Amino acid sequence: MGLVELLKSHILCHLIIGYVFLASGLLVNLLQLCTLPLWWFNKQLARTVNCRLAYCISSQGVALLDWWSGTKCTLYTDPKDYPMYGKENGIVVLNHNFEVDFLCGWSFCERFGVLGSSKVLVKKELAYMPVIGWMWYFLEIVFCKRKWEEDRIAVTQSLKKLRDYPENFWFLLFCEGTRFTAQKHQISMEVAEKKGLPKLKHHLLPRTKGFWVTVQNLRGSVVAVYDTVLNFRNNETPTLLGILSGKKYHADLYVRRIPLESIPEGEAECAAWLHKLYQEKDNFQEEYIQTGRYPGPIVNSPQRPWPLVNWLCWSVLVLYPLGVFLVSLVSTGSTLSILVSVAFCSAASLVFRWMIGQTEISKGSGYGNKGNNNG
Ligand SMILES: CC/C=C\C/C=C\C/C=C\C/C=C\C/C=C\C/C=C\CCC(=O)SCCNC(=O)CCNC(=O)[C@H](O)C(C)(C)COP(=O)(O)OP(=O)(O)OC[C@H]1O[C@@H](n2cnc3c(N)ncnc32)[C@H](O)[C@@H]1OP(=O)(O)O
Ligand SMILES: CCCCCCCC/C=C\CCCCCCCC(=O)OC[C@@H](O)COP(=O)(O)O
Questions:
Q1: Which of 16, 176, 209, 232 has its Cβ near the most Cβ atoms within 10 Å?
Q2: Ligand number with the minimum distance to the CA of 20
Q3: What is the ipTM of this complex?
Q4: Does the C-beta of 64 come closer than 6 Å to ligand 2?
Q5: Are 121 and 173 contacting, i.e. CB atoms less than 8 angstroms apart?
Q6: To test ligand 2's pocket by mutation, which of 147, 188, 358 has the most ligand atoms within 8 angstroms of CB?
Q7: Are strands 224-232 and 250-259 parallel, antiparallel or unpaired?
Q8: Whose CA is nearest to atom 28 of ligand 1?
């Protein structure tokens, strides 16, 4: 292991990265809170300002993936569709097998200039997470309880609000509703059998209601569905802790652009369309496993330097006062103030570790398991 690798895997580096993320993130959350009065005077301006502020947070995740760990993300897509990416609103349908799929998603959003405005149908539990959950609130992210009777009205209302959003956005849907595990797969295939649907080898059976309600409510504002399949080379299953330790991975993303007008309007027809899409996704996944490639050519989608610039700026801004504080603490601080500071740093480290834990599949929800949500 070289010196740089050793440094990247050192806990002190992780603590510094965690401190920069939490301190800058909470500052941004505070700035977002200050934009509240603006919503009454100029809603569109408030939304644009919040997109820029959110970029300051999510692009730190991209900096970690692209610049710190050096992970490469390769895009397979039709070159004819490429110029449209980032220039129109799209619904992204992605497989949900990996702990860092959201980071790869963010990395592509960054490359196409839609990182600050990107949206997702996300489980309500994440709304309470400091920094990211609070940032999402100001981005008008759509939260769901994964209980349709309770979600139907709230999700529809949130989606309707996005119709006049002033920035181009991608709306991410993990239609499987939860991360892939062998047990959840087996249960969802039992459901597929009962419903007379063909079995899927690499995906859980998609939940169709969220997709239907999203397509219906964003029609006219969203132009296309981006069917996307994500995989990592060499059968790797990357983790956020691995990325934090500087481990380099190689992601391959397949994107297929489908015009929204080709998707049926009726609920049953739309559901059938989505089931067919997942059968096709399953075939692309199989092809990747067999050949290490997707259909279609690789298109160069270059990284931009802004996530790194943003990260360095925030690091200077929050590390300098920390340094000054630590020097004065060591030189003049009482034992009590040193103990309080140590306790505070330990609590912050625990919060950061807890946030990372939210990405770990082994700590995932029981949604989709037997006895849980219609399983
Ligand atoms: C060029 C590059 C392009 C792209 C780049 C890629 C991406 C970048 C884009 C954007 C990035 C933006 C942000 C990313 C950042 C972070 C996000 C990170 C993670 C958060 C994600 C989540 O939180 S996922 C969980 C929440 N989301 C969802 O659940 C969405 C899917 N779910 C639905 O749509 C649901 O329908 C629902 C949530 C709306 C309602 O849930 P409910 O459970 O009530 O669902 P249903 O009513 O649909 O379920 C009941 C029906 O399902 C049948 N059933 C029962 N058991 C099962 C089972 N085990 N599996 C499957 N189906 C089952 C049951 O029989 C019912 O059937 P019906 O016939 O009655 O419908
Ligand atoms: C330079 C600093 C960089 C910091 C990098 C960012 C670190 C942020 C730490 C945590 C980010 C948490 C984001 C959580 C979003 C991902 C969670 C997720 O993937 O949810 C799973 C959900 O779909 C389904 O849940 P279940 O599978 O049912 O359970």
A1: 176
A2: 2
A3: 0.96
A4: yes
A5: yes
A6: 358
A7: antiparallel
A8: 177
Q: Which residues, other chains included, contact 309 with Cβ-Cβ below 8 Å and sequence gap of 6+?
A: none
Residue 349, CA distances (Å) to 132, 277, 314, 366 in order: 16, 42, 18, 27
Q: Which CATH architecture has domain 16-309+353-363?
A: 3-Layer(aba) Sandwich (3.40)
Using only the alpha carbons of the chain, give its radius of gyration: 22
Q: Which ligand 1 atom sits closest to the C-alpha of 368?
A: 59
- Residue whose Cα lies nearest atom 10 of ligand 1: it is 172
Residue type, 109: C
Each residue's pLDDT expressed in tens, for the chain with a length of 375 residues: 788 999 999 999 999 999 999 999 999 999 999 999 999 999 999 999 999 999 999 999 999 999 999 999 999 999 999 999 999 999 999 999 999 999 999 999 999 999 999 999 999 999 999 999 999 999 999 999 999 999 999 999 999 999 999 999 999 999 999 999 999 999 999 999 999 999 999 999 999 999 999 999 999 999 999 999 999 999 999 999 999 999 999 999 999 999 999 999 999 999 999 999 999 999 999 999 999 999 989 999 999 999 999 999 999 999 999 999 999 998 987 889 899 999 999 999 999 999 999 999 999 999 999 766 654
Q: Specify whether the CB–CB gap between 261 and 223 falls below 8 A.
A: no
Give the position, in ligand 1's atom list, of the atom nearest the Cα of 175: 31
